[in-house]
Each structure stands twice: as C-alpha cells, then as structure tokens.
C-alpha cells in the first residue's frame, strides 16, 4: 500500500504508528503530493492507496481519477477534514468506499484497512474461482448432463426445450430420435458404491445402446436407443443383471419403457417406474416391461393413489393427510374384493414407497417387517399394519424436521450475531454464504420460528448493540457506531433508523443517558 499526505507530521505519524503487517498490508512508500503519488503508483503498482483529499498540484480526487484510468483495481481510502464532505461524496462516485475524517485514530484506519483487504481478498477469490471453473468445465460437463437427465425425468417443470438443451450439451444426435427409459434398482436398499458400479457396468455392456446415464441415489437411469431391436436390448439387460449378481452377490431389477419421443422422457420414466413397482410379485432380479404389466392386470380396475403426493406427505410428516389418503385407497381396495395375492401386489409397493421416505437406517428393518405383513390373512389386517407402520414413519419425520428447523434458525441467529457489523449481512447473503439454502425458504422458517421478519430482527439487534455502545462509552462517535454495527459509511441512515426505533437520534440518546 501507498500513503499520501501533504502534511509531513501526519504522513510520518501514520507511517510510524500503524502496524501494517497486522492489517494484512505492507507499506511500500509515502508521497507528499498527488503528482509524486501518481508516479509512484505507476512504478510500484500498489493495491491500496491512503490519500488526503486536499493537496497542492494534484488533489486526492484527481489522483483517484488518474490512477483508476490505468489501474482500475486499486482501492482508495480518503482522508480529510470535516468541512470536505462534498469531496467525500465525489470520492464515493469514483468507487471509494472508505472516507476517514481528520483527526482519525489508529483504530479507524486499521478497520478501514482490514475491510479493504477483505474486499480485495474476496475479489481475488472470485477471479480464481472463475478461472478454475473455466479450466474444469470440460470435466464437469458430463456430470452436468447426468444431473440434467435426472432432473428431466423427475421434475414436472422441464419440457422439450430442456431436452433440446441436453442434446446440445451431451453431443447427442440432433432431435434425439426415439428412446426408451431403462431403470435399474439394486435389491436390498441403495448404496452409492453399488449404484456407481451398476451404472458403469450397464454402460459398458450395453455399449452404443446407451445415449445418456445417471444415478439418482437409489436407481440407475439410462436413456437407451429406442430404434434398436427389442431382443438385442433385452439380451443386453439380461447380461448386465447376471454380471452384477455374480460380482456383487446382489440382485438388481430392471424396468424398460416402450419407445417414445425423447422429449417425453418424463412420461417414459414414469412408465418404467410403474413396471418396476411390480417386481414385488413378479419376482426380483429380472427385466419388467409393459407386457408383464398387461399380463398381470386384474379384471377390475384397481384404486388409484397419487404416489408422488403421498411420498412427499410421508417424508414431511403430515400424518393427518396421509391417513386420509390411505383410508380412501383402502376403502376403494376393499370394494374390489381382491384375492390375497392381488391385494399384496397392490399394498406391498405402497408400503415400500412409504417406508423409503423414512430414516434410511431403519429401511432394512422395515423391509424385513414385510414377513410380518405377509402373515396377515385378512385385508383389514394388512391395511391396519401398513397404517401403523406409516404413522410411525410420519411421526419420526415430523420430529426430525422440527428439530432440524430449530437448528437452522439457531444457526441463522448465530450468523447474525457473528456478522452484525458486516454491511453485506442480509437474508440472501446468509443463505448463500453461510447456510447454503434457498433464501425464501430460509426466511419462511425464520419467521415461523420467531414470529419476526429477518430484516426486522437484524435491525433490532443492531439498534440494541448501538444502545449498548452508547451506554458503555461517552465519547463514541455516531459514525463509529454506524460502521461497527453494519451501516458502513452511512451514519445518516443509521441515525434515521435509530430514531425510528427509539424516538431519539443517537446524539439525543447519548445526552439522555
């Protein structure tokens, strides 16, 4: 950094009193006027310049303008007297964020320096991040395509334009052609290593049949050529299933949709999922297609239930609504008067789907409990058993969500206390930089838990902190308070907010105490 002031006493005083290294800086020189400072800046390339505003020859504002022309990234801290506020406003228009009035103490300069160093560090970090991102884009792209395929087949908001984007990114044939959705699911619960191995194995053994593949945490999803001979596809899938079972001693079930347009990937995925749901009575470790479904359809239309909504409600712990949906489904099922095997073929997938929404650590236990379910010889016994098990999952999920929400709010409150003096502190900042959450969702959680908007909470704590500072030190300046509690270089706005909350300006409040 470079220090500029035409008053020798001030120049030497600041040079001597400041612990530059503690501020993360190194003083590379001093200058007595703007012209000398400009020449030194061109020669030494400083990151930060502390300069007086009023100087002979070239004043501080002219120095800022001249240096910014060739070194736009240099940060300035301006020094001047109380009567030069208009100069300060002009300096701010040049991008100067820190303005210190003389006489200023070591602490004020130190805080301004540390803040400026932090800003420079953040800028360098962003630039490094961008460079690294550009360098690694080629490596990231395949994973991005996998993620986009996963979103495409599971998210209702994606459509034809999104598929066309995947086609371009993944380098698939223009238009995509006709495709099938192939889904593999290992039996006995998903494991990352197994899914990774199964995906790689399927892509290698099926070869050119696979257009794109991904894994969603419990399944392997492959987009395969819909124009290929069905027998060739079936033979390839059989090889994958047998190879996987031989190497990992675990069965996996495959489900294959009918051919369709690439933009219909979501519908084809749902069709494959419907096929997969029948594995519990068609048998594990094989390939299920729509033909098997048609061959096993009951003569009477089975009752329908919105599985996606049911899974979501179970996962979020809304037992009352889950109970209503299950009751309606069980009532409709009873009217069918199904045989025991037929009832189990409808109830077991429902039971499994609900259990998957619970604690993964309990999943094996719940799966083993199907043996207990199988011993029931009446429909009422089966449905009562499922209702009890689902209620346990709902109640456990409800408690876990409630605890998690309390922890999130506690972390957000701790974040506010820690960063109260940061002018950047906001709901979006905290969500992005600290908690890595959606800010709208975070704001709703906070308001539900505290009954207070986040912005009001931050302002209230800042005013409380300001009152505490005023009571602790008689000589504390308004601009110092504003800077330390997050109002930055805007003491006027701080005064307005303070008066709105207390009925007094900070100065009036100081006199009153």
TrEMBL record:
<dbReference type="GO" id="GO:0005737">
    <property type="term" value="C:cytoplasm"/>
</dbReference>
<feature type="modified residue" description="4-aspartylphosphate">
    <location>
        <position position="52"/>
    </location>
</feature>
<dbReference type="Pfam" id="PF00072">
    <property type="entry name" value="Response_reg"/>
</dbReference>
<keyword id="KW-0902">Two-component regulatory system</keyword>
<dbReference type="GO" id="GO:0003700">
    <property type="term" value="F:DNA-binding transcription factor activity"/>
</dbReference>
<protein>
    <submittedName>
        <fullName>Response regulator containing CheY-like receiver domain and AraC-type DNA-binding domain</fullName>
    </submittedName>
</protein>
<dbReference type="InterPro" id="IPR018060">
    <property type="entry name" value="HTH_AraC"/>
</dbReference>
<feature type="domain" description="HTH araC/xylS-type">
    <location>
        <begin position="437"/>
        <end position="512"/>
    </location>
</feature>
<keyword id="KW-0597">Phosphoprotein</keyword>
<keyword id="KW-0804">Transcription</keyword>
<keyword id="KW-0805">Transcription regulation</keyword>
<dbReference type="Pfam" id="PF17853">
    <property type="entry name" value="GGDEF_2"/>
</dbReference>
<keyword id="KW-0963">Cytoplasm</keyword>
<dbReference type="InterPro" id="IPR051552">
    <property type="entry name" value="HptR"/>
</dbReference>
<dbReference type="InterPro" id="IPR009057">
    <property type="entry name" value="Homeodomain-like_sf"/>
</dbReference>
<dbReference type="GO" id="GO:0043565">
    <property type="term" value="F:sequence-specific DNA binding"/>
</dbReference>
<dbReference type="InterPro" id="IPR011006">
    <property type="entry name" value="CheY-like_superfamily"/>
</dbReference>
<dbReference type="InterPro" id="IPR041522">
    <property type="entry name" value="CdaR_GGDEF"/>
</dbReference>
<dbReference type="Pfam" id="PF12833">
    <property type="entry name" value="HTH_18"/>
</dbReference>
<feature type="domain" description="Response regulatory">
    <location>
        <begin position="1"/>
        <end position="117"/>
    </location>
</feature>
<dbReference type="InterPro" id="IPR001789">
    <property type="entry name" value="Sig_transdc_resp-reg_receiver"/>
</dbReference>
<keyword id="KW-0238">DNA-binding</keyword>
<dbReference type="GO" id="GO:0000160">
    <property type="term" value="P:phosphorelay signal transduction system"/>
</dbReference>
């Amino acid at each position: 950094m470079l220090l500029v002031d035409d008053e020798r006493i001030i120049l030497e005083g600041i040079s001597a009193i400041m612990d530059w290294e503690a501020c993360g800086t190194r003083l590379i020189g001093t200058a007595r006027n703007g012209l000398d400072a400009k020449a030194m800046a061109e020669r030494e390339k400083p990151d930060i310049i502390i300069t007086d505003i009023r100087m002979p020859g070239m004043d501080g504002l002219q120095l800022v303008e001249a240096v910014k022309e060739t070194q736009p990234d240099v940060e300035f801290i301006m020094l001047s007297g109380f009567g030069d506020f208009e100069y300060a406003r002009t300096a701010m228009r040049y991008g100067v964020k820190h303005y210190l009035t003389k006489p200023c103490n070591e602490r004020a300069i130190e805080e301004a320096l540390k803040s400026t160093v932090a800003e420079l560090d953040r800028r360098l970090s962003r630039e490094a991040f961008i460079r690294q991102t550009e360098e690694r884009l080629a490596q990231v792209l395949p994973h991005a395509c996998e993620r986009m395929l996963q979103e495409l087949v599971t998210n209702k908001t994606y459509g034809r334009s999104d598929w066309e984007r995947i086609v371009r990114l993944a380098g698939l044939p223009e238009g995509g052609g006709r495709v099938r959705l192939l889904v593999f699911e290992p039996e006995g619960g998903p494991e990352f290593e197994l899914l990774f191995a199964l995906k790689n194995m399927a892509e290698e053994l099926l070869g050119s049949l696979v257009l794109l593949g991904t894994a969603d945490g419990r399944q392997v999803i492959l987009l395969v050529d819909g124009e290929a001979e069905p027998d060739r596809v079936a033979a390839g899938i059989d090889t994958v299933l047998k190879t996987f079972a031989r190497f990992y001693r675990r069965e996996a079930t495959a489900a294959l949709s009918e051919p369709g347009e690439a933009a219909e990937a979501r519908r084809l995925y749902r069709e494959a999922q419907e096929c997969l749901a029948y594995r519990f009575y068609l048998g594990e470790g094989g390939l299920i297609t729509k033909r098997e479904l048609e061959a096993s359809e009951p003569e009477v239309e089975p009752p329908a239930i919105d599985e996606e909504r049911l899974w979501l409600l179970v996962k979020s712990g809304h037992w009352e609504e889950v109970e209503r949906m299950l009751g309606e489904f069980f009532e409709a099922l009873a009217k069918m008067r199904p045989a025991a095997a037929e009832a189990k073929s409808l109830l077991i997938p429902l039971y499994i789907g609900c259990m998957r929404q619970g604690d993964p650590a309990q999943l094996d236990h719940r799966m083993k409990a199907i043996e207990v379910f199988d011993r029931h010889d009446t429909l009422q016994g089966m449905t009562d058993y499922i209702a009890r098990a689902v209620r346990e999952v709902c109640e456990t999920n409800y408690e876990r969500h409630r605890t998690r929400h309390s922890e999130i709010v506690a972390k957000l409150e701790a974040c506010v206390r820690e960063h109260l003096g940061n002018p950047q502190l906001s709901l979006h900042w905290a969500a992005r930089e600290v908690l890595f959450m959606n800010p709208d969702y975070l704001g709703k959680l906070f308001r539900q838990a505290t009954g207070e908007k986040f912005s009001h909470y931050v302002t209230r704590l800042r005013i409380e902190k300001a009152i505490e500072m005023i009571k602790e030190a008689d000589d504390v300046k308004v601009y110092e308070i504003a800077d330390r509690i997050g109002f930055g270089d805007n003491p006027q706005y701080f005064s307005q907010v303070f008066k709105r909350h207390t009925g007094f300006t900070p100065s009036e409040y100081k006199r009153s105490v």
